[in-house]
Amino acid sequence: MQMRTALFWTLAVVVTLASGLYQRRTGPTYPLSGTAELAGQTIEYSLPRSHGGDGDQEIRIPTGEVPVTGTMEWKRHKTKDAWVMVDMTAAGGALVANLPHQPPAGKLDYRITLRSGEATVHLPSEGGVVIRFRGDVPAAVLVTHVAVMFLSMLFSVRAGLELWGTGKNLKPMMYVTLVLMGIGGLILGPIVQKYAFDAYWTGWPFGHDMTDNKTLAAFLAWGVAVVMLHRGKHPARWACGAALVTLIVFLIPHSVLGSELNYEEMDKAGKPAGAVIPVPVETRRPDVCVRRMQSVPLITVREPIPVATTA
User: Which domains, ranges and CATH numbers included, belong to the chain?
Assistant: First the structure.
């Protein structure tokens, strides 16, 4: 009996940690890392895809002793904006350039070109990188949210495994799972969302945010399982089904189909208060990029910034 209980808890811990690691490393906000060969040297890079808080996002490419020059091009995501080109500067064995700060849920497309003599390499080798900006979330709020969600996953898996156990502790584990899911996903989750994207809830029925929707799906699954605990003949089966739904939910990469600023709607309504955008000064290729930039404050608009929820 004790050996089986220990085995079930061990399996629950392993599944929870594995699903969390998978979710983090496969999400669209995880840095895009890789290597590139230039002038006989290997250059390792890590390109950020998420920025929290104020200030611009620094893009740093370590170059070591290789004599390299570089440029970075960027534009607002899902717009017809011209690509803005910025020369990267050498600093501390690396090439550095900054992406301008965006409003919460704003995204930028960017790509980098490195040159050494006649050799050229693009980072990434194909396409570009999308980075999303968000507000700063207090560490205490974020850590508590993540911890509670992982505990809910842990108890979810453990309750599901009672299908092969005695079922003695099934009822308290199901209630604990439901309560943790509600606190972590439906209370702390919206608070984190408000700090990050200035909206408490952008999932169903107000939008299509996948993170909100999958949290709601898991909570409802456990809500049904708890109801069937009192009305059904096989509560352990319902618990196992809810645990499977939760596991599938946790395997969906975080931030997929997440909150996204609609730049076209924002442009129609006017710019957000205090926003700064680059203004071309000297154009090398008018249809593609600008060489230098200056920033000017935009007009203040009192209406809220429209946010779409499709990635």
Answer: 2-27+137-251 (no CATH), 32-136+274-290 (2.60.40.10)
Question: What are the tens digits of pLDDT across the range 136-154?
Answer: 999 999 999 999 999 999 9
Exposed / middle / buried, residue 97 (Cβ in 10 Å: 0-12, 13-18, 19+): buried
Task: Copy the structure tokens of residue 41.
Answer: 């040297």
Highest-confidence range of 22-36, 215-229, 294-308, by mean pLDDT? 215-229
DSSP string over 162-217: GGGS--TTHHHHHHHHHHHHIIIIIIIHHHHHHHHHS-S--STTT---HHHHHHHH
**Which of 131, 124, 69, 126 shows the shortest CA–CA distance to 100?**
131
pTM of the complete model: 0.76
Residue 213 · residue 250 · CB < 8 Å: no
What is the bridge-based pairing of β-strands 50-52 and 129-134? parallel
* pLDDT one-digit tens code per residue, 172-198: 999 999 999 999 999 999 999 999 988
Give the C-alpha separation, 289 to 83, whole Å: 5
Q: How many whole angstroms separate alpha carbon 32 and alpha carbon 37?
A: 17
Q: What angle do CA 22, 24, 27 make, to 5 degrees?
A: 100
Instruction: List, in sequence order, the alpha helices (H) in 95-188.
Output: 139-160, 170-181
Cα–Cα distance for residue pair 243/12, rounded to 1 Å? 11
276 exposed, middle or buried (CB, 10 Å; 0-12, 13-18, 19+)? middle
Alpha-carbon torsion (299, 196, 253, 219), positive or negative: negative
